[in-house]
Amino acid sequence: MKLTRSHLTVYAITPPHEPTGSALLNQVEAAIRGGATIIQLRRKEIPLSQVKEEALQVQALCRQYKVPFIIDDNVALAKEIQADGVHIGQDDMPLREARSILGDNAIIGVTAKTIAQAELAYEEGADYIGSGAVFATDTKKDTTRMSHDIFESICRAVPIPVVAIGGITKDNMSLLDGRGMAGFAMIGAIFNSSSTIDEIYTKTRQVATIAHRLVDTVTALTIAGSDCSGGAGIQADLKTMLAHHVYGMSAITSLTAQNTMGVSAISNVTPDFMAAQLDAIFTDIPPKAIKTGMLSNKELITVIAEKLRHYKATNIVVDPVMIATSGARLIDEDAIETLVNTLLPLATLVTPNIPEAETLSRMSITCGDDMLQAASTIYNTYHCAVLVKGGHRINDANDLLYISPNDYTWFTGKRIKNNNTHGTGCTLSSAIAANLAKGYDIPSAVQRAKDYISLTLSAMMDIGHGSGPMDHGAGLIHTQPYTNQ
Ligand SMILES: Nc1ncnc2c1ncn2[C@@H]1O[C@H](COP(=O)(O)OP(=O)(O)OP(=O)(O)O)[C@@H](O)[C@H]1O
Ligand SMILES: Cc1ncc(CO)c(N)n1
Ligand SMILES: [Mg+2]
């Protein structure tokens, strides 16, 4: 079987001896049904005669589910039963010898703890690398823990996929976000001799959901204006998506000549050109989430709404941009009705700041209770979740997420004493879209976006003569373990 990168996402390794017999087979099957993408038989504490019998049984199961079957260390056994491949450590049979025995079609994985070992393994024809221990582990007593920076350097050093191994659990996997791994090799996070089959299935589902979120390339699209100074608009959006390891694309609605002092000119694209941009994107690289920002006129809004319906776009975050931080109007007065009537019905979430929420709810907002009332009105009118941002007028950092009348949450953020807040709204909404693209639910996506914007503001970057932009790179998400899964 030819190895693909996605085979390595959920790498389930059997425990060294327990369980055995049918219990082992039942647990392996539950793991595969739960989302294991590759199985390794690693039975360090079982007599060789029994391992062969087990290997044939587990192999048959893997063949049934079309999941690669790898044997740990034992090249001869892998050859004898024609397993899909082997995994060899630095002290096992040399790679070239294993390759000469198993042939070019076998999958050969190699453990590497340094860049040099990884590079050598790649040069000698390894199909993937296993590297760690990325967390403290009790499975291999002699193994030392590897820093995540070293692990990332190994991932970046070779073009073949690298699997993280060592002490991985559903609770710590996200700490490796952005490190470049192709998957997670796990033993105890999946298998346990005292677990029921349902428990194995559930545990595997949990780690598989997180693993896919962390390793799959997800795409997101921003449909917004260009801010030539880079602080807001699609520039802020694309930097934010990159920081979340999401592949960002952009359909530009307007060009603005803008900097930290204000907006001096605006040139809108034509509806036909907007349609062409959206067709180009959706017919080739469908986005998993959409963020809309500056939408200056009703003609553009109409064509955007039509195309989002046509392509059945999902995870649509509408940032109802009306006035720039510098005070410039970014939407025609007569376009607001089109925005609320044609786009908000498609929205997963709308993210107004205080003035925008006042416009959408037709009420003034001077306190937290007003924010709640306005959110409720917007929800009842447009039937989408609402995030009313505390922003510059109420409390700067406490936002209200209103999902339904009985489901609303205050997201408090520490007020960061930084006058450079150009593009905070754009950044927050595109961070939410990036997290929705990665599979997070709305509350988790909002929390992670708040975490992110706190990092970009705390960097205290200070450029431009006016209210400057944030440092989007400061929030590179692997520099900060996220509080929620
Ligand atoms: N000084 C600050 N400290 C911490 N968080 C902040 C600060 N200022 C804004 N935020 C947060 O940034 C996010 C964007 O809110 P804001 O009200 O700035 O949106 P906006 O007015 O739409 O921004 P923009 O000017 O980019 O359109 C919100 O989560 C808000 O709580
Ligand atoms: C292009 C653009 N979009 C959105 C905003 C809102 O900050 C801005 N200032 N510029
Ligand atoms: Mg805004």
How would you explain this protein's 3D organization?
- Residues 479-485 have low confidence and may be disordered.
- This protein has helices at 21-34, 48-65, 75-81, 95-102, 115-123, 148-157, 197-215, 233-243, 271-282, 298-310, 336-343, 354-361, 368-382, 424-437, 442-458; strands at 10-13, 38-41, 69-72, 85-88, 107-111, 128-132, 162-165, 183-186, 218-227, 246-259, 262-268, 289-292, 316-318, 349-350, 385-388, 399-404, 407-411.
- A 9-stranded mixed β-sheet has the order 11-10-9-12-13-14-15-16-17, sandwiched between helices.
- The longest helix is centred in the middle third of the chain and has 19 residues, at 197-215.
- It has 2 domains: 5-216, Alpha-Beta Barrel (TIM Barrel); 219-459, Ribokinase (UDP-N-acetylmuramoyl-L-alanine:D-glutamate ligase, 3-Layer(aba) Sandwich).
- It is elongated.
- It is α/β, with parallel strands linked by helices.
- It has 15 helices and 17 strands.
- The protein binds adenosine-5'-triphosphate, 4-amino-5-hydroxymethyl-2-methylpyrimidine and magnesium ion (MG).
- Assigned CATH superfamily of the largest domain: Ribokinase
Biggest sheet layout: 9 strands, mixed
Shape: elongated
Structural class: alpha/beta
Small-molecule binders here are: adenosine-5'-triphosphate, 4-amino-5-hydroxymethyl-2-methylpyrimidine, magnesium ion
Q: Predict the CATH topology of the largest domain.
A: UDP-N-acetylmuramoyl-L-alanine:D-glutamate ligase
Rg, Cα atoms, Å: 26 Å
Number of strands: 17
What CATH architecture of the largest domain would you give?
3-Layer(aba) Sandwich
